């Protein structure tokens, strides 16, 4: 049996798959919700805790960086100690960290709690993927389950932006506290409904050094961009941090090339779909995934809306994502995931270019572009996990999913830091429009990358060499 899963069981019958998928989809919904729900609350958090515009970006970025940096090593921990045990501990840690963030008396406590939330989400993701594979062993049914699980994540990102405004009307602290009741069904399900896979224990060594280097590299890059945005001029601290942002990623890459205990499995690096899926995940976060932050600034700081009004303004985007996720799941039946993702990126790019042109316009004029962006958002997010895990050996699917999420959140944190640098100290419609053009360019690149794969598959078939 797997270490830590005390009561392994054979594959569950079909009648038990729906409850398991519901529990795992709710967990995925909660982890993505917790990333986006704070965006609308950022101005209120700043007023209470006085973080300042540069440090404020670390409220979402601390979550993203620690999630991305610890995700792959968490996959090894799930293999070592069992996905069910890891899932249980991750749910408890995420609930505790969310409760701490909700009562944080100062900025240091809040950012520490956000980092702990990211670490807990990192433990939860590969464990959930391992349990999902066990719950749905049939390949065709598993593809549908992955689509549903991914759609739950896309919906969580969109719902967070709308619900965040409503909760901030009471207090920004509720944007963190709301996670706790959402996790209660996950905890109950982990105790009474989910079953541990009946597979041998994995005794592969956990690559601690590689994990520390990977997390340090991501932190160094985002910190360097933050320092540059905050100081605007070179200095000893800026030079030191920028040097670390160059050296640590280089050392990490050298370590991955030569070491025996690597973070990214070498067999995984050879999988075409994993490489493409990771690129798609990164471009998704640099395009549609960055929309929530930019729209929050536009609606509240430029248009002068309250947090509640901004949350209401997100509703068309939220509904579009919620509709597009299940639609993409149906499109994936019998269609190439690359073709579906390509269509999603086309919608995203069109919507983001449209938004960049109407930043000064009344809200009704922005609606068509918001809807297009939301539809593309839901389609790409749903397709990318299916794309990135298709054709991957069974034993590597959990690690593949972890790598996709790592690419997603590293890109999200870096994109947020870059956008903060472009926005500068004075946020206005012109600068936000420029940032939307940059996100649209990332969406266009995603379209080109997936279109190339779709055309290649159309010419040579899915199994092209």
Question: What can you see in these coordinates?
Answer:
The chain is an all-alpha fold. It folds into 2 domains: 11-207 and 263-460, Growth Hormone, Chain: A (Up-down Bundle); 208-262, no CATH class. The chain contains 20 helices and 2 strands. The chain has a two-stranded parallel sheet. The longest helix is centred in the N-terminal third of the chain and has 32 residues, at 139-170. The protein is globular and about 50 Å long. The protein starts with 7 loop residues before the first strand and ends in a 5-residue tail after the last helix. Residues 20-458 form the Major facilitator superfamily (MFS) profile domain. InterPro entries: MFS, MFS_dom, MFS_trans_sf. One of its GO terms (cellular component) is plasma membrane. The chain crosses the membrane at residues 54-74, 86-104, 116-134, 146-168, 174-194, 206-229, 235-255, 276-295, 307-328, 340-359, 365-388, 400-423, 429-449. GO terms for molecular function: transmembrane transporter activity.
Write the layout of secondary structure elements.
Elements: E1 8-9, H1 17-36, H2 42-49, H3 53-56, H4 58-81, H5 83-102, H6 107-135, H7 139-170, H8 174-177, H9 179-192, E2 196-197, H10 208-231, H11 236-258, H12 266-269, H13 272-286, H14 291-302, H15 307-313, H16 315-331, H17 337-357, H18 363-389, H19 397-423, H20 429-460
Helix pairs in contact: 1-6, 1-7, 1-9, 4-5, 4-6, 4-10, 4-19, 5-6, 5-9, 6-19, 7-15, 7-16, 7-18, 10-11, 10-19, 13-18, 13-19, 13-20, 14-20, 16-18, 17-18, 17-20, 18-19
